[in-house]
Amino acid sequence: MKLKKLLCGALALATAGLLIAGCGGSDKKAAAPQDGKKVVLKVGATPVPHAEILNFVKPQLAKEGVDLQVVEFTDYVKPNLSLSDKELDANYFQHIPYLEKFSKDRNLKLAVLVKVHIEPMGVYSHKIKDLKDLKEGAKVGIPNDPTNGGRALVLLEKAGLLKLKEGKGIASTKQDVVSNPKNLKIVEAEAAMLPRSLEDCDIAVINSNFAMEAKLNPAKDSLFTEKDSPYANVVAVREGDEKRPELQKLAKALTSPEVKKFIEDKYKGAVLPAF
Question: Which CATH number is 122-225 given?
Fold first, then answer.
C-alpha cells in the first residue's frame, strides 16, 4: 500500500513538472514573435529624390527588423513641424542651413542624424537657351524661404547677373542687391511652385528635387548650376534621438556603397552622394 502511495505521489509530481515545463515552454514560444516584431520607423520626405532613396533601402531595413514607412510631403514646412510633434521619427528633405534657420525661428529641438546627398541648385528657363540672352527687366523667380532664397541670390551673383552686399552670403535678401545691370525683377515664390513659374518668369532658380519632379534634368536643362555645393541634404531627428538603434540602422543604410551606386546610376549627376 505504501509503495502504491509512493508511486502515485511520484507520478503526480512528474505530471505537475511536465505541466509546469509545458507552460514555461508555451510562454517562450509566445514571446518569440513579440521579440521578432519589426520596429516601425516613420520618415517624412519630399518625393524626388528623397522618398526614392528611402524606398531603395526599405528592403534592407526590413531584414534588420525595421519597418520603414515613408510619408511624402510637397512643402518645406510640415516635415519639420510633424517631426517636432512626434508624428514622424525623422525627416529627409533639407540641408543644414535651412534646418538650423527653421529650428531657430520656430524654437524646435531638431538635430542632424546623417548627411546623404547634394542637390545642386540651378537656373532654368522655358524662354531662353543662354543667360546671355536674358533681356532688360526680365522676371526672375527665386524661393521665398530665407536660406534657399539667399542661396538663389548667391547663385545669380556667381552667374554674373547681379552683385550682393559683401559678406552676406546665403543670408542675403532682395534688399542686399547692390548692382543689378539688367534691372531684373526678382519675384519670390514657394520653392515647390517655381517649376510652374517658368511659364511666367524668364528664368527661375529651382532646387533640384523640385526640378526633377517637374521632369527637368539639372545636368542637362539648367542654364547655370552650383559647383561644389556645401548644401548636403540630411536626415533630421529630434534632439536626443540620435542614438536610437533603428535610426542608426537607417543612417548606416543611407550611406552604404549600394546607395552611393543607386544615386550615381539613377540621377546621373543631378544628385550627388555626400558621403
Answer: 3.40.190.10
